[in-house]
């Protein structure tokens, strides 16, 4: 029974596990840059995004969606697509942080952490949808 459940949900479980790792990277880098060295929160947010997306690409590719490519071109296309769709969720991320920190004045380190954590929940859901249905699709594996 456990094996049956694992086989049915292993992609979601793997995505959630690596999503937690990626989120820890994102929030950790953001907190360190924004609260630790007092960098502008949006600059810190973008740097944290870039590093966490790099972690997400390789973990999603290998351990979540088992994406395989046979050429450098296929790798480049997949990598660019991944960053493109993550760029769309970066816009959500930046807007969410702007509303929380600038408009609602959640400025303390703890308040920024809460805003960033809620932000990540929304972004993770959007990222899964993009990855599962637009980037690492079975149809695309055969076209590349």
Task: Summarize this structure as a short list of keywords or feature phrases.
single chain; 144 residues; mainly alpha; transmembrane
Notes on the structure:
With 144 residues, this protein is mainly α. Helix content is 86%, strand content 0%. It is built from 5 helices and no strands. It has helices at residues 2-36, 41-64, 72-103, 109-135, 138-143. Helix 3 (72-103) runs antiparallel to helix 4. The N and C termini lie far apart (36 Å). 25% of the residues are buried. The mean pLDDT is 88. Residues 15-136 form the GtrA/DPMS transmembrane domain. The chain crosses the membrane at residues 12-33, 39-58, 83-106, 118-135. Keywords: Membrane, Transmembrane, Transmembrane helix. This is GtrA family protein. It comes from Candidatus Limosilactobacillus merdipullorum.
Summary, kept brief:
The protein has 144 residues and is an all-alpha fold. It contains five helices and no strands.
């Amino acid at each position: 029974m456990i094996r049956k459940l694992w086989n049915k949900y292993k992609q979601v479980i793997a995505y959630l596990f690596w999503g937690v790792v990626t989120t820890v990277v994102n929030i950790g880098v953001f907190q360190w840059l924004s609260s630790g060295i007092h960098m502008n929160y949006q600059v810190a947010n973008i740097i944290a995004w870039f590093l966490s997306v790099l972690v997400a690409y390789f973990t999603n590719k290998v351990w979540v969606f088992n994406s395989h490519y046979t050429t450098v071109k296929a790798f480049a296309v997949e990598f660019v697509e991944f960053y493109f769709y993550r760029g769309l969720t970066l816009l959500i991320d930046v807007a969410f942080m702007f509303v929380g920190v600038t408009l609602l004045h959640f400025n303390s380190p703890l308040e920024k952490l809460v805003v960033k954590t809620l932000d990540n929940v929304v972004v993770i859901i959007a990222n899964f949808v993009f990855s599962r249905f637009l980037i690492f699709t079975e149809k695309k594996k055969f076209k590349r």
